[in-house]
Design goal:
Rossmann fold, 5 helices, 7-stranded mixed beta sheet, 181 residues, alpha/beta
Length: 181
C-alpha cells in the first residue's frame, strides 16, 4: 500500500503517519529521515521527531539524497516504511550546500523514479509531505521553482497513491482511497 500524507506546518501529519506505520502488520518498520543537519532549527526539529518515535522500534535510516538507496539499508524480509519528508528531500536534491541549484524537472523525474524503486522493496510506503502553497507570500524565483517542484511531486504521487490523507489541526481527512476491485 502507498499512502501520501500532507498538511501544513505542525499539523500533526508526522505523528499521524507514524501511527499508520505502527498499524502495519510487518515486523520490520523503517523511518527514513531526510532532513539535513544544517543548523540549530533543523537540529531542534530532528530531536523533536526522534522523541516522537522513541520506543516505537523503528529502524531509522538517514537518507537525505538518492532516496532509493534507503532500501539497500534494509535487511531481507517484509518491511513497511515512512519517508519523512518529501519536502526536505526535494529541497536537498534541488539546492546544494555550496549554493548551486539543479534544474527542477530533472530532479522531479529522479525523485519519482527513486520513490518507485524504494516502494518495490516495501509492502507499505507512507510519504509525509507539506502543503506550502497557501501562504500568499511572494518569493524569489528559486524558491518559487522549489514550490512548483513540490506541487508537481505531490500531484504525481497522489495519482499513484492508494490513499491520500490531509492532516488539519491533528485531524486526518481522507482525500482519496483506491478501492480494490
Amino acid at each position: 500500500m502507498f499512502i501520501l500524507v500532507t498538511g501544513g506546518s505542525a499539523s500533526g501529519k508526522s505523528a499521524y503517519g507514524e501511527r499508520l506505520l505502527m498499524e502495519c502488520p510487518e515486523e520490520k518498520k523503517a523511518y527514513i529521515a531526510t532532513m539535513l543537519k544544517d543548523g540549530p532549527e533543523s537540529l531542534r526539529r530532528i530531536e523533536r521527531h526522534r522523541n516522537l518515535r522513541a520506543g516505537k522500534n523503528f529502524y531509522t535510516i538517514e537518507q537525505t539524497h538518492k532516496i532509493s538507496d534507503a532500501g539497500k539499508q534494509m535487511q531481507e524480509g517484509s518491511w513497511s516504511a515512512i519517508l519523512e519528508c518529501l519536502s526536505n528531500l526535494a529541497a536537498n536534491e534541488m539546492f546544494s550546500a555550496d549554493g548551486t541549484k539543479r534544474e527542477s524537472h530533472a530532479i522531479e523525474e529522479e525523485i519519482i523514479t527513486q520513490i518507485e524503486a524504494l516502494y518495490q522493496r516495501l509492502n507499505t510506503l507512507i510519504i509525509i509531505t507539506n502543503n506550502v502553497f497557501e501562504d500568499g507570500i511572494s518569493y524569489d524565483a528559486s524558491v518559487m521553482e522549489y514550490i512548483r517542484l513540490l506541487g508537481r511531486l505531490n500531484r504525481r504521487l497522489a495519482e499513484r497513491a492508494d490513499q491520500v490523507i490531509e492532516v488539519v489541526a491533528g485531524i486526518p481527512l481522507l482525500l482519496k482511497e483506491r478501492k480494490e476491485p
